[in-house]
Give the backbone structure.
Amino acid sequence: MTSHPPMNPHPAGNHPTTAHQSPVPPTTDDTKIRTPVTPGTFATPDAPGTPDAPDGPGTLGTPDEPGTPDTPSTPGKWLPLLATCLGTFLLLVYATIVTVALPSIAADLHAGFGPLQWVVDVYTLALAGLLLGMGSLGDSLGRKRLYVRGLTAFTAATLACGLAPNVQVLIAARAVQGVAGAAMFATLLPLIGLTYTGRDRAKAFAIWGAVAGAAGCAGNIAGGILTHFLSWQWIFYGAVPLCAATIALSAKVLARDATRPAHIDWPGIATFTLAALGITFGFIRGGEAGWSAPSTLLGFLVGAALLAAFLLVERSAARHPTHRPMLPLTLFRNPAFNGMLLAACVYYLSGFGFLPVLSLWLQDGAGLSSLSTAFVITAQPAAFFATSALVGSALHRLPARWTLGGGSLIVGLGNLAFLVTAPGSSWPALLPGLVLTGVGAGLVSPVLPATAMSSAPPSHAGVAAAAANSARQLGLALGIALLGTVFHQSAPPPAPSPTAYAHALHTVFLLAATLALTGGLISTHLLSRPNRTEPRPTAN
């Protein structure tokens, strides 16, 4: 792997924000890996005379390229990473922690099956629908400000969940949790990119990916343990002190990144958020009520109409001399951006969308308890965590097509490994598939943030990272709905036979494998293509 000396296309004094730094020139060699942004460009994303940096084709931040020194060693150097990882852990834990507690919630609050589904789904709905809009707000108003405010709202909503006197209040509090979680999730990755440079940035992203994997593991286990030994309310009460400590730490150690607000594309944020909510609702409702149900079709119809309105709004904003669109449509001319979004969607869909189905089979088909089921499924996030922790920082030296595309392909192979299940199989038959899907996800997750931010100009790094996370959440919602529908059609309740169970699992895993392998191959191709919209560097 070769490296090029840094070039400064701007004379000193003509670039007030980055005059003391040397941005790396773009290259058409997609085997190169470069730093997505230079430290300091986040500080004033809309400063006059600070043009957006050109982007490389399908590459991500290099930790060891000349001109990109490590973050200076200071006391408390890693405290900002601790603050962001704690926030990541909290918001991802609450995507799964309530699953095992649903029977206890139903008995205590006298809730039916439909409301119980929305206790889980409303969090995913808010998280997926609001991520991109929150990323744009963070780019304009400041990521630290939005993150701390989101974390504060998340803490209040978590306490309200534990105090909920009925299922309606619980659903409303979970919705607020999802909105606040979107504000946190959309700003976490840009805050890490703002704080660390060089090898430290690669290490920070790798640790973040490992923490994200550990959160999935902890959610399943903590939900089972707390509900079994205390009560379901303690899955919320127990997090309040940790939330408060994270707020205090974040307010103290995170760097401010915006000194003055920029133009906010409110029409773009509103139309995209409502479009994402409509489409996500359609996926969730399709899995519950059927894909031809009026409510499902209405969700998709409203989502599609608002998505068309969003495209018109963004085109209009791009032509306005003083407006900045929330999501520049020119980003979609970059094959690396499209490949990144596709990989983010399919690896989450195929790697995690089957878990509710698998949990159902382990308890009803294999006869395991809820706590034993949680420990079996933990094999996947354990493999995820080990992969991210052991090789995560080294992955940043590889081309994005090998990590994002290759990781998605491994997820597909993991789904094929599940096909060994037979009518008389038990939980050991699942371990190879759980480990392989965990390893594949562990290859994608650490490098996805840097790939997303390197595929956009620095002033839109936050919204690009939010787009990646939004694609993941939409993929998860689609995976749970689609794979769940296929499973229940192949093994209809109430008491399918072992043969019907095995056939249903095979159908689910074949579909998930097909989607992961196809998406992995396409994203590998897109990440290998040069960025045709990238401007050529000019001599000084």
Observations:
- The two ends are 27 Å apart (CA to CA).
- Residues 11 and 189 are 31 Å apart (CA to CA).
